[in-house]
Amino acid sequence: MNSEQRNGGGNELGSFLRARRARVTPEEVGLTAGSGLRRTPGLRREELATLAGISIDYYVRLERGKETRPSASVVDSLARALLLEDDEHEHLRSLAARAARSAPEPSAAPSRTVRPGVKLLLESLRPHPAHVISRTNDLLAANPGGIRLLPGIQDWPAGERNIARYLFLHPASRDLFHDWNNQVRGCVARLRALAGTDPDAPDLTRLAGELLLKSPEFARLWERYDVKGHFHGRKTFHHPEVGDLTLGYQSMELEGTPGHRLVTYYAEPGTADQDAMVLLDLLGQEKPAKRTSARDDRLSAVEEDPASPLS
Predict the structure, then answer these.
(1) Structure pTM?
(2) For 1-15, what is each residue's pLDDT tens digit?
(3) Helix axes 56-63, 8-21, angle to 10 degrees
């Protein structure tokens, strides 16, 4: 086994450098593109190496995963040459640190268990829609509005409820989100950032593998290697049950968990958006006309834990 095979971190570092190099034009960094045909989109390797102040041979070795210990100054120089923003620069540092390890650390499947106190918190947030998601966007728990906000996802088996899967594969998602393209870009960017630091994670490889096969849009965005996500802001929904509503949202990491996040939505008091939000909560309390198993009859929308095995 050679060093490139032994260290997946070097390959991931190279993939990021290639993807970002293809996104920067010569004009953006003050170079003249020249009159000849450029076979390479973006910057050539030798152009980037010159801008970063390193040898072309050294840079080629970095892209190919054969050089796995770039210094902090080299990483910073590459970030400047590639016009990386702060979070992208930090991601490059993380990739370089991982590449420097002699061998990748084994990954374990993270726990999907949601603590009882967090479930009580979901209930206390009503009528504000809220749910708990894993680091790969598995929907682990939700209050009534939090599950009803994504129409049709409750019809999937609990273990398959994943917001990334919903965005790309559920037929309702394109009509639901006013800015679907922006939503999917942010979703893939968060998954891509995780892939950079834990590429062998079993939860990520299963999800990414499925979406790469089933969704050309996901495959295209995955190749771009964006790593910028959004953890607060506003979203407009064209909801089939309560109509159009615009909600603010905030995502918060839950300490003491393997990357679980609490996502909650809110509306300004006294607005039509708040009325629609309250109606969504009421609709979420309704029991489905048909239950799929005896287990479902014993669980409310908030108490359901998709991580629990069916009895």
Answers:
(1) 0.69
(2) 334 334 445 578 888
(3) 120
